[in-house]
C-alpha cells in the first residue's frame, strides 16, 4: 500500500497557521513512509470562497517550504483537485444513498428545525435531530414536493442509545455517544455538498490512506465512519492532532494571536523559523533540540512522538526562535538579501514613493515618513488618541466596527478598502474624516501620516487588521458584555 495523505483547506479567508501545521505533519508522515502528499481545495462555500484566497494558501505554504505531489496547480491522476470542479460526483453519491435507504430527502423548514431542537432542549435531551424527529407524514411530503419546496438530503444515523467506536492512530479506540450524532445534511438545498459528504467521497476516490487532521473533527468521525460503511469502502486510518492553543490555553484565534501566515511573512519572520516552530507544536526531535530544519524533521519523523497535550503557540517564543535563525544561519550577505526581498525592494518602493515624495524635502525625510510601513506592532499609547476629542469608548466602537468590516472584505485593494470604510461611516452617520481619525493612529501611529486607506492597501489585510486589534486593546479592549452590545449595534447598521 502506498501511503497517501492530504490537506484540504477552504479558500475563504487568510491562510491560517493551523493549516500549515496540519500540512506539515501530513507531508512528514507521507515522506516518512515513501508516500504522496496531496493538496485539495474545498471551495464548496460559494459565497465566501475566492480565487485570491486560494492563491494566498498556495503562496503561503510554498513560502514556508512545503510542497505537494498533486494539487490544483500541479495536477495529478486523481484530479480535479477543486471540489467546485467535482460537483456532479457528490449529487450522484448522495442520491445513491437515498436509493439504498441510507439517506433520505428532508423538507423540514429552518423554523421547524429550531422548534424541534428547542423541544429537545426543554426535555433535557441532546439537540441532535434523528430521522424519526424529522419524519413528516407521507401526504405532507407529497404536498411539499408538489409545491417545489426546498429540500436537503440527510444521512440515516442510529436512533438507539449506545456508542460508536472510532480507532485513532494516536489515541487508540475512542467511544463516541450516538445520541450526539445528528442526521447530517449531505446535500444542501442548492445542490452543494456539505463537508462531510465531499470529504468522504474525495478521500476515497483520491486513494487517501491516512487522514491526519485537527482534533476538532473527532466528533464528526462517527458520521464519516458510517458513510464509509454505507458506501462499502475501506476507511482511511484516522489521526487527530492536538489543537494549537493561545498562551491562556484557549483555542488559537485571531482575537488573541495573529493566525495568518501572511502576517508572519509581513512581520519579517523567516519561513524556516516559522516552520521549525510549527514542527515543535506537540512533536519533538529524538535529541529534544528546539531548532531544526524541515530536512531534519523529515529524516527523524515518527508520528508517535506527537504529544496530545494542547501545544501553545506563543509569539514571544517564536520571536526567540526566529532570532536564533537570524543570527546562526544567515551571514551578512544573506541577511541583506532577505531584507531586500522582504521590504526594501523595488516593488515596495514603487508603492510608497508616490505618497512619500509629496512630503519630502530631503532624502532623509523618507525613513521617518515611512517607517511604520516596515514596522511590526506599533508602540501605541492610549494618550495618542486623546487629541481626537472623542471619548475612548466611541473610538473603540469605531475601530471595532471598522475591524469587522475589514474582516469581511473578500478583495483587498485601495478602492475596496475605501468603499468599505466610506460606507460604514455613512451607516454610522459620521463624517468620513471623523470616522477615519482613530484608524490613522491605529495604522500609522500618527494622525499626520499620508492617507490611511493607501497605507492599509500597502500594508495588506493581515497587518492592517492586526494593528486595529492592537489599537483596540491599547484603548482598553472590549469586554464580553460590551462585545454583545456592539455586535447588536453593528448588525443593526444599514451597510
UniProtKB/TrEMBL annotation:
Keyword Ligase: yes
Keyword annotations: Aminoacyl-tRNA synthetase, ATP-binding, Cytoplasm, Ligase, Nucleotide-binding, Protein biosynthesis
Residues binding ATP: 254
EC number(s) given by UniProt: 6.1.1.17
Record's keyword annotation contains Cell membrane: no
Record motif 'KMSKS' region, residues: 251-255
Entry-linked PROSITE patterns: AA_TRNA_LIGASE_I
GO terms of molecular function: ATP binding; glutamate-tRNA ligase activity; tRNA binding; zinc ion binding
GO biological process: glutamyl-tRNA aminoacylation
GO CC term, one of those recorded: cytosol
Residue window of motif 'HIGH' region: 9-19
Subcellular location: Cytoplasm
Subunit and partners: Monomer.
Function: Catalyzes the attachment of glutamate to tRNA(Glu) in a two-step reaction: glutamate is first activated by ATP to form Glu-AMP and then transferred to the acceptor end of tRNA(Glu).
Name this protein carries in UniProt: Glutamate--tRNA ligase
Organism: Chromatocurvus halotolerans
Organism taxonomic ancestry: Bacteria, Pseudomonadati, Pseudomonadota, Gammaproteobacteria, Cellvibrionales
Encoding gene per record: gltX
